[in-house]
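Sample entry (286 residues):
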Amino acid sequence: MNVTVWDETGGQGPPAVFVHNIFTWGSDDVYGFAAQRPLADRARLLLVDRRGYGRSPDVERNDFEVDADDVVGLLDESSTASDGRGRGRGNDGGGGHGDGVHGDGVHLVGHGNGGVIAMLAAARRADLVRSLTLIQPSAFTAAAQHPVVAKLLSRVTGAAPQVADSMGAVEFLRNSTEGIGMPMPEPTPERLRAVATSMRERPIWEADVPVKPLRAAPFPTLVICGTWEDAPELYRTHVGEPLVAVAETLTETLGAHLLRVPGFYPHTQEPDAVNEALRELWGRAG
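Predicted structure, serialized as tokens:
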């Protein structure tokens, strides 16, 4: 698993692991976390490329359970690297400082499917986590009783693999963007590889989201979602409304704090607001 490291603290900042969504990779400036780079003056940023994405090796089929194990390994390695010196690509440690159980832990951030993976990892090793931030997590099973989410699950369950198998990466990318009123990003080889991996991912609605252990965990949790009022109608209806329902449900069930920002891609469209919220959360968590 490739990990891009951004660090302006000389290895003295706490480690922060970022887990990306589909169609992207850690340092991507379209859907990834490129706009969070200013936070490198506060923390040692570790941007994961999940298997099959970015500069990580190919995989036959991506699975959120395997990704969660990968993230746990990175959390363990990063939280125990107390000397603050990096040890090479994919093996970078961040020097944790502070008192208490989470003084040597890791700030964990996940977007979309990456948010579900972050939740799985945090539940497995809560002792390694300082804080958890979920940016529009695709944790649909955690809100399956909500009418909007139930409608989404009814529509997509069992359909996605057949649809994906019937088209190539360019067509799938076009249908997933222009097909719902969104601009299509440039179909570069790196983008199309990410799309092809996404087409083979295990459906995220098969994830058993660990709500109870996360609610009992001692670290603070922040949920971030867009307001979606300016999103294309199809995108807002089919994607935005279920994601907002999930965000609101998780905020209540996890006892988290909810931040709403304008737009529909919080960390890329409103990076200043998101970065400020992360700074505040990380400051409180230590």
